[in-house]
Amino acid sequence: MGSGPPARPTEDRWPGHREVAGLFGTGGAASTGFPLPPVQTYGDGVGEHIPWAVETSKDGERLRFFGKGWTLPGEPLLLHAVPRLVRYKRGDEDGSTWCEPLERDGDQPMTLLRLEEGERLDLWPGPEHVGLPMLPPGGENGRLLTFEHAADGSNWSYTLEFRGSRER
Predict the structure, then answer these.
(1) Cβ atoms 66, 56 nearer than 8 A
(2) Which residues, 6+ apart, have CB-to-CB distance to 79 below 8 Å?
(3) Residue pair 72/98 in contact by the 8 Å Cβ criterion
(4) CB pairs under 8 A, 24+ apart, for 136-144?
(5) Fewest CB atoms less than 10 Å from the CB: which of 35, 57, 63, 166?
(6) Residue-level pLDDT at 39
(7) Taking the mean position of all CA atoms in its chain, how far away is CA 58?
(8) How far apart are the C-alpha atoms of 163 and 153, rounded to whole Å?
């Protein structure tokens, strides 16, 4: 990293999640046991990303649209404030079907979905998750820049960055 990667995305690309994590003094393998994809160049638009439709349910009876997340191929998706059940499907394939609902396995406020593997993990994000796409309730997809929480889990704070572009 030499003099260090930019703290903010450049005109051409987002910094990779490991590049951004390096700014905070740590990196390496994910403590969650989920290996993260290698650093990638994110290119100049949404065309390289995969859309994922996400629905949630508190009781398993009624599903509600949570939002649409965008990831690069193989990249996991972070979600905030997901109730007991979550399901998703690719939004760019005709005939795509919903995965089986995945049940909460902890009381942490964040959920990591390994979309292609159909796995859910509720967690406190660490430096290894910085730079990953995150979908808070309401459906506005961003990238995680910082996350911190009290040791007892009583409060937390995070920062997301949102980007957009228009074709002219």
Answers:
(1) yes
(2) 54, 66, 69, 86, 110, 111, 112, 113, 134, 135, 136
(3) no
(4) 136/67, 136/79, 136/80, 136/81, 136/160, 137/66, 137/67, 137/80, 137/81, 138/67, 139/65, 139/66, 139/67, 139/68, 140/67, 141/67, 141/68, 141/69, 141/70, 143/14, 144/78
(5) 166
(6) 40
(7) 21
(8) 30
- Per residue in 55-69, pLDDT (tens digit) is 999 998 999 999 999
Digit-coded pLDDT (tens) for 12-58: 454 554 454 444 444 433 344 444 444 444 444 445 889 999 999 99
Out of 46-50, 105-109, 124-128, pick the least confident.
Answer: 46-50
Report which of 12, 33, 14 is spatially closest to residue 121, judged by C-alpha positions. 33
